[in-house]
Each structure stands twice: as C-alpha cells, then as structure tokens.
Amino acid sequence: MLPHPFQEAVWIQFVELVWAAIHTVSTCAHNHSTINATKGSVGCSSAAESISQDTTTESTSITSFIAVLKLRCVNTNRQIMTCLFRVLHIILKLLKLNDSELKDDFICLSIHHIQKLHWDPGYRLNAGKVVSIVTDDRHSLTKDSAQFGIVSGSLLQLLCSLVEQSDTEDTDLRDIFVELADVIPRLATFLQEQQDIPKSLSQYSKHKILMLMIRLKPHIQQNCSHVVCLLKLLQRHFQSPLHEPMFQHSTKLENCLEGSPFLLSGVGLGELQDKSTRHLQRQAMYLFLSCSIVLACSGNDSRLKCSCKRDQCCHKGEGCTDNCNYFGLSEISVWFQRCCLDKILDSKSSTDIVLCFLQLYMEEDDMLFIILLQLLDAPLISLAIDKMETKWTSELIGAKLFSVVFDPVRIFHQWLSLLHYDHLVLVDYLISKDVGVHCAQYLLRCLRLVSGCWDAFVDDSVYEAQIQKFNCKRQRTLKNINSLTGSSMEGTKLGSSHDKENKSKEQLFLSAKVCLLSLKRTLEDLHKKDLFPYNPKPLLKSLSRFEELCVQY
C-alpha cells in the first residue's frame, strides 16, 4: 500500500510514463510500416507528443523521455509493446493484492489511454522492425503476424484484468466501464481483419474478447442500447461458435481442462483445437442467452434505460422498450431454431437437447453454474411473449419452445441425472472455493421452484404436453413456408418417446429424492462437526421442506 501522497503521485507518474512509451512506440511502428512500404523511409508523427503532454504531472521528465525514445524507436525490440503491457498488468495485480486505493485510479487512467490507441484497419500494434505487408518473405510475414498476435493478446489480458468478474454492477466505475465497452466494437473489428494470425492466437483473442464482454455486461446492462450492441457484436464476429451444433463434439469429462483451454500439454493438436472451440462456444452461448433474456424481460424492469437509435432494433412495438423486448425474443427464437431444432435428427428428443446442452457446460464448473443460474429465467421468456400482440407471437414459436424445453425444474432433474444422482458430487461443488457460492444459490432457487412445482418435478409429462403443443404450431408454420417454397422439409419432432434413458418417471423421481435427502444428511453431519466452510442452514431448511413434500407424496 502507498499511503503517502508523494508516493501516490510517483506511481501515477510512472503509469503515465509507461502509457506514454506505449503510444510513442506504437505510433513510430505504425509510421515506419506505412512509410517504408511506400517511400522506403522512416518517420515518426507527433501524435505521441499530445499523449506525453496529456499527463497529470507538471514535470518535463516524461516529455524528455519521449523525445529520446522517438529517436531510438526504429531500433526498439519488437517485444517492447508486449513487455510494457505486461508491466501494467503486473502493477494492477499488485494493486489488487494490496487492496490499494490507487486501483481505481489505475483503471480509469488505463481505460483513458486505451481509448487513444490506434484501431485503423491497416494498423498493427507491434513495434520494432515492422515487416511490410507487400514483402515476399512469407516466413518473415508469418513471424510478424505471430508477434502481432502476442502483442494483442497481452493487451487483451490487461483489458480483462481491468474489469473484475462480478455478478453485480460497480456504480463507482460504471461510467468508465461504459467507455471501455465503446472500445470493444473497434477492437473486435480490428482483430478480425488480421487474417494471417495463427489460429491458436486468433482463438485466444476471441476467448479474451468474449471474457471481456461477459465481465462488462453486469456494469452496462442497465441500458438496453449497450446490450443490443453486445448482441450485434456476437452476430458479427462470433457466428461460428454461437451457431455451431452442440451435438457434434464428443464430451470427455475425464479429459476436462484444469487451466486455459488454449494451453494444454499432452494432447494432440486436433483435440486441443476441439477443446478451445467448445470453450468459445460456451462463452458465446452464455453471453448471447444472458443478453437476449435481459432484453426479452426489459418490459418488466423499470431500472432499464434505453437510448437505442431507431435502426438498432426491430420495430414491432410502440415504444423503444417494446422494440428491445421483441429484439431479444426474436434473437432467442432464431438461435434456438438454427442451433438446436434444425440440427438434430428425429431420434433426438427435447430431453436430448437439454442433456447435450448441459454436457457442453459440464467441462467447466464456473461456466456451468453461471449458465444454470441464467436458465432459471427461462420461464420469463414465455411470459414476455404472452404479453405481446397476438400477431407477433407466431414469429416467436422458437422462443416459446426454448422456454418450455429449458424449464428450470426440468433442467434441475436432468442435471442431477448427469451427476448420476451422486450427492457427494454436490458436496464437492458446495465446498469449492470457485463455484461453492454459485452452487448454493442454484440449489436454493431450484428447491424453492420444486416446492412450487411439485407435480412437475414428480412427473414431467406437463412439459411434454406443452412441447407437443408448440411444436405442432411450429410444424404448421413450417408447412406453410414449405408450400410456398416447394420444399419438403418437415418440422423436427420433439417428443420424449425416443429418450435414451429407459427408466420410468417414478424411478427418476426416486433417484432425485435419494440424492437430495442424502445431501441433507451429509450437510447436517458436516455442520455438526463444524467442517462445512460456511453456514448451510438456509440450504438445510430448503432440503427439509423438500423432505416434507416427499413424505406427503
């Protein structure tokens, strides 16, 4: 910690110095690349001069340093940008570790400078002897592209560290995070245009951009226009992972990742790429569903503000909120139709869709519980559609089906079945430092839902009836479309007659009952011995209520 004002001022000056160096080297590299490709000469614009002058210090030391650096920038090492970003990243880690008051100042200052970085289509962040794009030396070009990927990866790593993972909005930093969110479209477009980056680095960049978007969402979702922007970015830059079928990847839980999905030793290149692809798919689908549900339920949240332009959303309602509401519902409907209903065979049932979806997320515990918590809002989609004008609801059958297929009580049942009804797995989740809180939240909310929907938990035939009802509407809609286009395509059957599990509904209920009651006894025993890491009384109370319902049944 740095309590002394003088020390704080020195730290701020040092951070300003690092950013001034980044801008200077970045600008020199850009000019060197541009001029060398046309005139064969080297030059350096005065863009960095304004950066060096835009500092909080009255000293001329930074300006003097920049003047010297500009004279030497042609001979700088090509890793200098990476090193500077890593220096900033380490500083931020130390500020967080010491819980320093300078952390917020560092975040604000860094975002201020990030906004000033060049994001031109032909611009590269890497410094040093930049290879001309018109060169015939393919080896040099490949090496330069890899270096660019490393530099951009270091920047993305810093960006993600600036925004801590949180479920709630940070009101103190909300405005500065909104400014950072405005940078993402330019950054995503800039990185996508670098076509010659190695695939592994490209995958890593996509992973970091998605992580940044996920972390920013709680801070910017109070304005519908920001959520619409995130959805449009997903559609523009992440079409492949977002719409890739969930059913084509084999799930191997014994080979799940312990660290980064992009850095794993001891596996083949094909398996590694498959793991990273599935990770991107998990991130993209979670962000998509989270943003779509926020918009779909926007009419029920008076806290939501909207500053969307008239051409940003579909205009199916009277006001801006109605437009955003329909836009979110329409996005879910189209995605579910394309990603699930159009990609499965007749032998796949609605249960298979749920199981494949859950299996995709079972490989990463932290992603599993945030998506499970998000799916608890699935019924709100159906309620939002019911409130809309009748003439628009026929276009949202896919969203209706999604709401029923992914009903929280049904999801809870299928999740327990994937755990083989092993209550000790639940205990491991609950005591985990990484996911324990989210697991406890999920169990509490599910047990509350089960208490209110007991008949559906015991016998899910009510969901089958609803699915068949909406699927018939969907098939009639498809039949009308096919009659106009001459296509013979038939609607996908979503019945439960082809379920892989041959157990009776009674047996499924009994298995869930044994699992949850065993969990209750284990938690009571651990709590009595003072071995549980936190107070399990709220969860034990909900499990006791579940036990009472079992006795009555």
TrEMBL record:
Residues 1-20 form the signal peptide. It comes from the Eukaryota. InterPro entries: Lines_C, Protein_Lines. Residues 513-548 form the Protein Lines C-terminal domain. The keyword Signal applies. Pfam families: LINES_C. This is Protein Lines C-terminal domain-containing protein. It comes from Triticum urartu. The gene is LOC125537458.
